[in-house]
Amino acid sequence: MSSERLKAFSDGVIAIIITIMVLELKPPHGEEFGALVGLWPTFLAYAVSFTYVAIYWNNHHHLFYLVESIDGAVLWANLVLLFCLSLLPFATAWAADTEFASAPMALYGADLLACATAYLVLGRVLLRAQEAGSKLHAAIGDDLKGKVSMALYFAGIAAAFWRPWLAGAFYITVAAIWLIPDRRIVRALD
């Protein structure tokens, strides 16, 4: 089975996720620039979540450049990833609406952890669907960034109940780590 339809469907879902998130950005009621100050939680939450969705989209595309075949398990693993990503607008809105309170920040981190886990599973299922010696097999090895990300998500979820701002710092750190696409895959593409 070709991966082109899967990639196109994933692109469409990700575009809808971004659209839903941007709809939370409502204009202020005042007519001065100062009226924008009250929107900082919503804009910050949107910017971080948009960055995450962009990272997943970018890495998803890189990953699928190396895929030669897919099967039903890959389709389902991809849908689980899209499901986890589709919860991001809700978690983003709740965190912004509460100005980053403890429970919303913990939920936000739990969703990010779910997305990371789903992406990890997708990668493993894709490996199973490829022939031994494929470009994907050559590219996927030790996933240090993935392991560090998981640890930071767990730390962020725990920190959310103590210092929500610290949880946010952990989540932003993970996003910063992943701004550069997965070098293992980029090397395999070269």
Automatic annotation (TrEMBL):
Listed GO MF terms: potassium channel activity; proton channel activity
Reaction(s) catalysed by this chain's protein: K(+)(in) = K(+)(out)
Superkingdom of the organism of origin: Bacteria
Keywords, alphabetical: Ion channel, Ion transport, Membrane, Potassium, Potassium channel, Potassium transport, Transmembrane, Transmembrane helix, Transport
GO cellular component, as recorded: membrane
ATP-binding among keywords: no
Compartment(s): Membrane
InterPro entries: TMEM175-like
Annotated transmembrane regions: 6-23, 35-55, 75-96, 108-127, 151-180
Keyword Magnesium: no
Membrane topology field: Multi-pass membrane protein
Xref: Pfam families: TMEM175
Predominant place of localization: membrane
Family per record: Belongs to the TMEM175 family.
Name the UniProt record assigns to this protein: Uncharacterized membrane protein
Organism encoding this protein: Rhodoblastus acidophilus (Rhodopseudomonas acidophila)
